Amino acid sequence: MSEILRVEGLCKTFRLSRKQQKIERTDRKEIVAVNNLSFTANQGEIFGLLGPNGAGKTTTLRMLSTLIRPDSGDAILDGYSVVNQPEEVRGKIGFLTSELKLEDFFTPNYLFDFFSQLHHVDEATMRERKKQMFSRFGIDRFAEVKVANLSTGMKQKLSLVISLVHDPDIIIFDEPTNGLDVLTARTVTDYLQELRDLGKTIILSTHIFSLVERLCDRVGIIIDGQLTHCDTLENICNGQTLEDRFFDIYKEKKGEQE
After folding, report:
1. pLDDT tens-place string over residues 127-153
2. How far apart, in whole angstroms, are the C-alpha atoms of residue 176 and residue 205?
3. pTM, rounded to two decimals
4. What does the alpha-carbon distance between residue 69 and residue 168 come to, in Å, rounded to a whole number?
């Protein structure tokens, strides 16, 4: 498989407000969210970032998707730099996070058409893709229902479909099954496997061990903004369960910091 993503020394620091300092019980004025992060991903694989809440996973994916700019380092997606060529990167990727909400007033039909036009998808292709994807995810029956009146699972499936209107080669998903019921989560994970089989590259973040075990060809373990391990599950686990191996790695990392 050929390399399609190279992350090179990404760093990101955020300033803490007084309120955040109180919540964190710290006098620090800054927090390092991502610290010199480097890894690669290949065409046609699912690469997972596994770590606890606050590990830096979401910040990393936001930098890869050009939503925020790294303090230093870079990432090259299919030949384009997130730092120097963000517009080109945005045309290559689809990005989905549960923190990005669709406007309640609009319908699935309107949103699919709007984002297709935003990505310069021609009308014939747009109609065909909408028919296929709405049918695949059961959205067709709710095509003219306002987002505000859709179930949580249907909103998530619509968000997934909207993020893929332009058929991107690289798909970046932050916690793709977060908050979903088991049936909707299964629908989403099955579709991610189908996309991988079509040659798409999927970068996802999660704290769910079973999701990594089911989906990921390779995984990077991230703790406190640093990548501690990056390899296949077989090589990382070395005979242990992923859960046991992760907690061993976590304890080792915390021990080093103490």
Report:
1. 999 999 999 999 999 999 999 999 888
2. 8
3. 0.90
4. 21
